[in-house]
């Protein structure tokens, strides 16, 4: 004899209904379990995002106010002996380099170089990409072909070799390295901008603005450009991370900012010969470089997930 389970109603009805959710037309759907997994995944992202925000905020503040931090020696001031181990003083907290200068001080002052180059080169590449990409995507035809030629020319050459050639021609100054990096990263913005403009050029709001007599410049700047901000906003932090890594690579190869101005890549290169005997000489700049790149990538990934059209978060 079969037994039937008692039927309950009202707020007591839980269990299977908590997993199987009624669908449209009387059917059932099973969206809850994937949603729970998705929520767990999203809960991790804000934690890493806020860690990245705190780390970059501290780094930027330290770099900006390095000259007035009490007890912090100048980046070219000799405070100890060769590769002195860390101590409890502020200047010697991370030890000294091969010349006896404070590693902590040079990391903080080096942040000025790395962050300045990362921000400025990204903005230069963004400006080039916006102008070329918007014109090519909006007018199409020969303008699109010209934009493709520019982007393909930049991306066809090995980035490091192109950078070395540009830096050798322009010079290893702060301005020269920034311009070279901005030009190399511009092909990314050209492609992204052009594709986004092509996708928005025939939307209803653009056609309505054109029907009301709006000019091309007004349509591109007032109608299309605001819709590119979510896409570009998630790419910019990741591009900054790339710029920091590339600038560090140039400094490591000897094509970075000339000494005695500190840079993270230059510090790693200077301590490479003695890192086995004195690992703390390069530990500071390596960890700082890693955390900074991780932070920019985390912010870019978080912004990308928050502005994903497929998730309906625009």
From TrEMBL:
Membrane topology designation: Multi-pass membrane protein
Region: Disordered, residue numbers: 1-20
Tagged with keyword Cell membrane: yes
GO CC list: plasma membrane
Subcellular location: Cell membrane
Pfam families the record matches: BPD_transp_1
One GO term (biological process): transmembrane transport
Polar residues biased stretches: 1-16
InterPro entries per the UniProt record, alphabetical: BP-dependent_transpt_permease, MetI-like, MetI-like_sf
Principal location: membrane
Family, as annotated: Belongs to the binding-protein-dependent transport system permease family.
Name used for this protein in its record: Peptide/nickel transport system permease protein
Lineage: Bacteria, Bacillati, Actinomycetota, Actinomycetes, Micrococcales
